[in-house]
Amino acid sequence: MATFRKRVGSFLIGLYAWVVAISFGMVLVDILYARLAPNANLAFGEVSDFLLMISTVTLLIAIVVIAFSSQTRVVRNLIIASQLIAILEFISPALIALIGLNTQAHSFGPWLRILLSGTASVLAFIGLYLYKQQK
């Protein structure tokens, strides 16, 4: 039974790490697309909708993984931190808009999103690695 639980846990954490990596890639595509095609509002909305769907799937998988890895404290904390950072990345454009409309905040915004999304992905993969290393 413990082997089955470890295999399922490994699959779920791997799935979470994979989805967070896909989300990171989608953030990069979203930022590049916004920079390269600023006048294509309709298509930009579709890209943003897909990014929203990926973020929702990431959140749902994270909830399952956190519940499943409750016995492994370090892995659970890494997944929680990864998900909190992913949520912060998701709301960062709104936070930057609340800060103000100056040019520095808008030029720093994409880099903040890349940094946060990349950090969430790295934490997820560290959690996967540590889960695989435990006995």
The rounded Rg comes to 17 Å
Biggest β-sheet strands, sense, barrel: none
Based on secondary structure, the structural category is: mainly alpha
Total strand count, please? 0
Mean pLDDT: 82
Shape: elongated
Strand content: under 5%
What's this entry about, in short?
By secondary structure, the protein is mostly helical. Helices cover 90% and strands 0% of the residues. The chain has one domain (2-133).
Give short descriptive properties of this protein:
mainly alpha; 90% helix; 0% strand
Give your account of this protein's structure.
There is one protein chain. Helix 1 packs antiparallel against helix 2 and helix 1 runs antiparallel to helix 4. The mean pLDDT is 82. The chain has one domain. Helix content is 90%, strand content 0%. The protein is an all-alpha fold and 135 residues long. The protein is elongated. It is built from four helices and no strands. The longest helix has 35 residues.
